[in-house]
Amino acid sequence: MQTKIQTLPSKKNIALVAHDGKKAALKAWCLTHKNVLQTHHLFATGTTGHVIEKATGLSVEKLLSGPMGGDQQIGAKIAEHQIHMLVFFWDPLASQPHDPDVKALLRLAAVWNIPVACNEVTADLLIASPSISDEITRDLPDYQGYLATRLD
């Protein structure tokens, strides 16, 4: 599939997701990086969003809880180019009943070429990047171009 270039805005839409065993770590991470996070638009799965909002006072657009469809809602927003970065503290040591949704979410992040942090150190590196508040470009699959060649 051909690709096209898209510019991401300086104010990023950041999705925040955490499994139950990692919610405390994501809450602590958000508290540490509150000054940067407050300059961006935050989305989160339901329970995680409530935890972050209560602990930090940050404004978070809360979707459904992950197992109730929130992971899929975040994935849809990624596919629609509404999410520019994903911070997903998943718990590799706990079985997740919605594991297929988790894998689908991570796959969509890879397909649509958005940065993903699955642990604190990677999230620290992303949020500390000089590009976090800059316009940056990314290559995307050219789905519209693909459709145009298939409909001829």
Automatic annotation (TrEMBL):
An annotated Gene Ontology molecular function: methylglyoxal synthase activity
Superkingdom per UniProt: Bacteria
Annotated PANTHER family: METHYLGLYOXAL SYNTHASE
Keyword Lyase: yes
Catalytic activity: dihydroxyacetone phosphate = methylglyoxal + phosphate
GO cellular component: cytosol
Protein family membership: Belongs to the methylglyoxal synthase family.
Cited SUPFAM superfamilies: Methylglyoxal synthase-like (SSF52335)
Gene behind this protein: mgsA
Protein name: Methylglyoxal synthase
Function, in words: Catalyzes the formation of methylglyoxal from dihydroxyacetone phosphate.
Keyword tags: Lyase
Limits of the MGS-like domain: 6-152
Residues binding substrate, per UniProt: H19, K23, T45, G46, T47, T48, S65, G66, H98
Residues at the active site: D71
GO biological process, one term: methylglyoxal biosynthetic process
Signal peptide: none
EC number annotated for this UniProt entry: 4.2.3.3
Pfam name, any one: MGS
Membrane-traversing stretches: none
Species the sequence originates in: Pseudoalteromonas amylolytica
